[in-house]
Specification:
With 403 residues, this protein is of the alpha+beta class. The chain has 2 domains: 2-188 and 346-399, 3-Layer(bba) Sandwich (FAD/NAD(P)-binding domain), CATH 3.50.50; 192-339, Orthogonal Bundle (Helicase, Ruva Protein, domain 3), CATH 1.10.8. The chain contains 11 helices and 19 strands. The chain has helices at residues 10-18, 53-58, 64-73, 76-85, 105-118, 171-178, 237-246, 266-278, 298-305, 318-329, 385-399; strands spanning 2-6, 23-28, 48-49, 90-92, 97-100, 121-125, 129-135, 138-143, 148-151, 153-156, 183-189, 193-195, 206-215, 220-229, 233-235, 255-259, 331-338, 346-351, 369-371. It has a 6-stranded antiparallel β-barrel with strand order 12-15-14-13-16-17. It has a 5-stranded parallel sheet with strand order 6-2-1-10-19, sandwiched between helices. It has a 3-stranded antiparallel sheet with strand order 3-5-4. Strand 13 and strand 14 form a beta hairpin. Helix 1 runs parallel beside helix 5 (105-118), helix 1 runs parallel beside helix 11 and helix 8 (266-278) packs across helix 10. It starts with a strand and ends with a helix.
Length: 403
């Protein structure tokens, strides 16, 4: 039996390393395997998350129930064990994020490539698949250079449509549609958010331990953690995760609000401000917030608060303080849009999972056709979960290829 795997990312490498067949051919249009993995985690590759399968599933945004079987078939612990078997040690950082001990994504890629090769897989690089079709009981795959490859089983693991420079150009969706599959509308996931407000003065400001909420008046989503201001809006882990929760709605209707002091209720925060003001009652208001806020945020808050900058703090009224407290607990901006799909860490949408067997990743429409990884309509928050999706679905496809 011959198996062809299209796409040498984490899902494809895992499928090629797991499948049991007489011949396994892994095809990728890039000049090297795992090209997108090289840039993940700023080149460090947050390969998975140190969590149990149920927590892994709880961090899936798109179609978590579909992913339950795959999550239990190949767990985050299995990922770490596999890497260790190829002498890649890992470490756990904040939020359970798992990285290679070396901080080099190339170590992860090398291990996955060795896994595939050790299973007898042959890797063909620099040759894109133009299309594939059913041929008798098997398939025929047509390459860019004109070659045709016949196979008995076909696994499509071509990734999404984000970061097209890494080869994620949406080819898998065309293949899926050619076989009669539905492709759920593609949407940007884990992307920065563009604001209507001018926040250029805040560019580069990083905030930790804040609570960020997005609401359109009917729906509301909140996350706690770190965020970052950019020249056009906001980014950072909290914002990226929130973007995945609103990408199926009209995002221009949303307001984004930041609770700068989530650990303090309004009354306690007011007492804190009174205490700070009391340290030097003759100090001007514009010079009184240094203990409370990051330096680069103070001018923006002073302007938005409406309190005269030169006013002595002993002249700040109770109502003025209340307005300041409200501002600090709910610094609000208007959302313009999500950044484009091509800038997203992952792609939301994809091959409709209703047409895929969740245990085997085999098509319910075409026997012998499998899908794995980002090409599927499954996506998750940041933290290593998306690569684990690829590994788990790739494993499921490979493990069931002979059954």
């Amino acid at each position: 039996m011959k198996v062809v795997v299209i796409g040498a990312g984490p899902a494809g490498l895992m499928a090629a390393g797991t499948a049991k067949a007489d011949e396994i051919l892994l095809i990728d249009g890039n000049e090297k395997v795992g090209k997108k993995l090289y840039i993940t985690g700023k080149g460090r590759c947050n390969v998975t998350n140190d969590c149990a399968p149920d927590k892994l599933v709880s961090n899936i945004v798109g179609n978590p129930k579909f992913f339950i079987s795959a999550a239990n078939a190949f767990t985050p612990a299995d990922t770490v064990e596999l890497l260790n078997s190829f002498n890649v040690k890992t470490k756990v950082e904040r939020g359970g994020r798992v990285f290679p001990l070396s901080d080099k994504s190339s170590d992860i890629i090398s291990a996955l490539e060795k896994y595939a090769v050790s299973n007898g897989a042959k890797i063909l690089l620099g040759n894109k698949v133009k299309y594939a079709e059913k041929s008798g009981s098997g398939f025929c795959v047509y390459l860019q250079d004109g070659k045709r490859i016949a196979c008995d089983k076909l696994i499509v693991a071509t990734g999404g449509k984000s970061y097209p420079a890494t080869g994620s150009t949406g080819d898998g969706y065309k293949i899926a549609e050619s076989f009669g599959h539905n492709v759920v509308t593609l949407r940007p996931a884990l992307v920065p958010i563009k604001l209507k407000d001018d926040v250029r003065s805040l560019e580069g400001l990083s905030l930790k331990n804040v609570s960020v909420t997005l609401t359109d008046g009917k729906k509301s989503f909140s996350k706690f953690g770190e965020m970052l201001f950019t020249s056009f809006g906001v980014s950072g882990p909290v914002v990226l995760s929130l973007s995945s929760l609103i990408n199926s709605f009209d995002v221009s209707r949303f307001k984004l609000s930041i609770d700068l002091k989530p650990a303090l209720d309004s009354e306690t925060l007011d007492k804190r401000i009174v205490s700070d003001f009391g340290q030097n009652i003759n100090r001007q208001y514009k010079n009184s917030l240094s203990e409370l806020l990051p330096k680069s945020l103070i001018p923006y808050i002073i302007e938005k608060s409406g309190i005269p900058p030169e006013l002595k703090v002993n002249s700040v009224t109770r109502d003025m303080r209340r307005s300041l407290v409200y501002l600090l607990k709910s610094l609000t901006f208007s959302v313009d849009s999500l950044m484009p799909l091509e800038t997203g860490i992952v792609t939301a949408g994809g091959v409709d999972v209703k047409q895929i067997n969740p245990k085997t990743m085999e098509s319910k429409i075409v026997s012998g056709l499998y899908f794995a990884g980002e090409v599927l309509d499954v996506d998750a928050f940041t933290g290593g979960y998306n690569i684990q999706i690829a590994l788990s679905t790739g494993f499921s496809a490979g493990a069931h290829i002979t059954q």
